[in-house]
Amino acid sequence: MSKYKILNLYACLGGNRYKWDEVSDNLEITAVELDPELARLYQERFPNDTVIVADAHQYLLDHFKEYDFIWTSAPCPTHSRARYWNSSNYDTTTKAVFPDMKLYEEILLLEHYFKGKYVVENVIPYYEPLMQAKKRGRHLYWTNFNLPNNLQDRRFAISQTKNELQELCKFHEIDLSSYNGKQSKVKIGRNLVDYEAGRTILETVFGIEKKQNENQVSIFDQLEK
To answer: Which domains does the chain have, with CATH numbers?
Structure first.
């Protein structure tokens, strides 16, 4: 039986991917992460995955046809409500920036060219989304399949205290103690998708694939009769 090929873009530490092995043991996962230190930690966490240090946006364009399921979580800061509120306050040092339209470029590419199932995940933006999305908890999801109303997305109350990093690591079951990159460890922890939501979404995809396969077999049976 051939492996089910998954592309996990902007992989970070694989918050969304953490429980995927509980969904199926027949996965071939490729993770793309630009930060070499995060890529190293991801590889240590998931030694059986193929980890590529590269620009996820370009990798998607070059390789999307090679996969059955694609998850992409494009960088969210330029879309976030928090940044907009800060940049709207002239007493702060946060600068106004153009929203990064790579998010919508990826949605359009996947919607019109990709034949498999996909998920594009991002924050709820400060503006009305330019393309209709599914709101679940604190996130928006663009998909080509129906999402459950409840993603089992666990709530995490960020305390924003000196213990926040410790709490984030415990919540996501990660270890950032050996991370030597330039990004804030707290920011890394905050950006991770809850692994229960990631598992529920892949379970949904597999349920859809199974139903489609069963329907296809049923059609063949009827033709043979």
So the answer is: 4-224 (3.40.50)
Its pTM surpasses 0.85 = yes
Residue 193: count of CB within 10 angstroms of its CB? 23
Q: What is the DSSP string of 51-104?
A: EE-S-HHHHHHHHGGG-SEEEE----GGGBHHHHHHHT-TTS-PPP----THHH
Which parts of the chain sit beneath pLDDT 50? Answer: 217, 219-220, 223
Residue 200 to residues 47, 111, 172, 211, 225: CA-CA distances in angstroms?
Answer: 22, 21, 16, 16, 38
Strand-strand pairing, 27-32 and 50-52: parallel
Kindly state the greatest CA–CA separation across the chain. Answer: 76
Tokens at 106, concatenated: 């990826």
Q: Which helix (H) or strand (E) holds 191?
A: helix 185-191
